[in-house]
Each structure stands twice: as C-alpha cells, then as structure tokens.
From TrEMBL:
UniProt xrefs under CDD domains: ABC_Mj1267_LivG_branched
Name this polypeptide is given: Urea ABC transporter, ATP-binding protein UrtD
Keyword ATP-binding: yes
GO cellular component: plasma membrane
Keywords attached to this entry: ATP-binding, Nucleotide-binding, Transport
Molecular function as annotated in GO: ATP binding; ATP hydrolysis activity
Gene3D superfamilies assigned to the protein according to its UniProt record, in alphabetical order: P-loop containing nucleotide triphosphate hydrolases
Pfam family, one: ABC_tran
Domain ABC transporter: from-to ranges: 5-244
Highest rank taxon of the organism: Bacteria
InterPro entries noted in UniProt: AAA+_ATPase (IPR003593), ABC_AA/LPS_Transport (IPR051120), ABC_transporter-like_ATP-bd (IPR003439), ABC_transptr_urea_ATP-bd_UrtD (IPR017781), BCA_ABC_TP_C (IPR032823), P-loop_NTPase (IPR027417)
C-alpha cells in the first residue's frame, strides 16, 4: 500500500536551533498515528511542516506522489491535508450550522455564504457530519454556547467537510471531560475509515486506549515506532518520556 504521507529526513532550523533534525515518518491510508514524546521533541513542528506553516530547511514531504515541501498552506489544504490546532477557531457568534456552511464554502465571504441558497447535497452533507460529531441537535445554537469538547468536535466537523485525506490533530482532547475524551477517541477511529489521522498527544491513557501505531519523537527525530506495548518495552522511551509520566503519577 502506498503511504498517504512521507516525511523524509526533515529538518527545521530556527536561526541555528534545529527543532527537527532529520525526522522520518510514513503514514498509510486509514491509519490513526499517534505522535508522542517529551516537550520540545519537535512534534508540533513536524505537523507545521506537513501543513506548510513552517518551511523545512532540509528534507522532503510527500503527500501521495506530490512533493509538498515548499507548497503554500492554502494549496496543501486544497490537496487534502487538514490541520486542527489546539484551540478551536470557530465563529462563536454564529450557529453550529452556519459555522459548517462557512467551512463548506471557505473561499467565499461570510455574507455571501449566509445569503446563498444551499443545495440539497450540501445540506445532506452537513446533516451527516453533524450527526457524526453529535451536534445535529445543537445546529441552531450559537457555537459560543457549546461545551469545550463540543467546540472541538465542531472544528473537527469543519475540517471534515472539505473531505481531507489526511487530518492533523494537535492535542484534541485537552480540557475535555472523560466522556468527551471517550467519544473523541471513537470519533477519530470513525474518521479514519475515510482519511488517515496523525495526532500529537500527551495523554498516555488516551494513547493506550485508542492507538495502534505510535511514533515516539525525541530531539527532533523519530526515536522509535510500534504499538504502545512495544514502545513501553523500549528503555530509551521509558528513560526520556514514559518514566517521567510514571513518576508524576
Ligand atoms: N518559531 C520558533 N522559533 C524558535 N524555536 C522554536 C519555534 N517553534 C518551536 N521552537 C522550538 O523547537 C522545539 C520543538 O518545539 P515543538 O513545539 O515542535 O515541540 P513539541 O514536541 O511539540 O513540544 P510540546 O509537547 O511541548 O508541544 C522547542 O525547543 C521549541 O522551543
């Protein structure tokens, strides 16, 4: 099977400080890949390079056969890579439905989108996605009135409406209740039926519960990959990351 994403020997130089130092990553269709590692390991920087927010100073990023290393962010989005940042960037004064409408027609202005008549197909698509993110009953509510977890789901829904083939999530469960975390884990696996997902996450209980393949990053490189069971046996991973977690408990 061809990988959706290949990062080959990617380095990022921030004025002499190397946040990434030859990072390699392959992600396959329908995969849910967790990226873990200590603070400063380069996880967010790697997501930033993949979505075009940060430029690699060396190495290549391939999305299927496209070399996207030097592509501007908006073109990468159009190719099918969607990035959700830690804090939700939704419009609090608009309803859940209007947020979804806007996400559907991002290239048009707010006024034009809200005035335009929707096609049946678009309407059905929004309904299906709102069902998936469990917000159909909240469609007419202002997004600002949603719980923190629901706001995160709304933003995930707004990413999904563009039908990405790769979704990048940065700590999606931060600040969520236990029930919201559980639902988010299930949602991520549902999403992976249609698109690969790469998730940066620090919550090891969540990673244990919902991961298959985990990539451990350290000092700007990939240290190792495998199932959570595999990497828990890795002495270096325990030393630099998981050991600290146990001590903190
Ligand atoms: N714009 C920047 N300029 C300079 N240094 C940066 C910049 N962005 C990130 N860094 C540094 O690069 C390193 C990697 O940061 P990054 O945020 O990718 O790590 P991370 O693994 O995501 O950490 P965390 O788990 O704390 O979010 C850190 O030392 C960080 O301070």
């Amino acid at each position: 099977m061809k990988p959706v994403l290949m990062c080959c020997n990617v380095s990022v130089d921030f004025d002499g400080f190397y946040a990434l130092q030859g990072a390699d990553l392959k992600v396959y269709p329908h995969e849910v890949r967790f990226l873990i590692g200590p603070n400063g390991a380069g996880k967010t920087t790697l997501l930033d390079v993949i979505c075009g927010k940060t430029r690699a100073s060396n190495g290549k990023v391939l999305f299927y056969s496209h070399d996207i290393t030097d592509m501007p962010e908006h073109k990468i989005v159009r190719l099918g890579i969607s990035r959700k940042f830690q804090s939700p960037s939704i419009f609090h004064q608009l309803t859940v439905w209007e947020n979804m409408e806007l996400a559907l027609k991002q290239d048009r202005g707010l006024f034009a989108v809200l005035q335009a008549k929707m096609s049946e197909v678009d309407r059905d698509m929004i309904i299906t996605l709102l069902q998936r993110i469990e917000l159909l009953d909240y469609a007419d509510q202002k997004a600002g009135s949603l719980s923190h977890g629901q706001k995160q789901w709304l933003e995930i829904g707004m990413q999904l409406i563009q039908f990405p083939q790769l979704l990048l999530l940065d700590e999606p469960i931060a600040g969520m209740s236990a029930a919201e975390r559980e639902r988010t884990g299930e949602l991520i696996h549902e999403i992976a039926r249609d698109c690969a997902v790469v998730i940066v996450e620090h919550d090891m209980d969540f990673v244990r519960r919902f991961s298959k393949q985990v990539t451990v990053m350290h000092e700007g490189k990939v240290l190792c990959e495998g199932t959570m069971e595999d990497i828990q046996q890795n002495e270096k991973v325990v030393e630099i990351y998981l050991g600290r977690e146990e001590k903190a408990c």
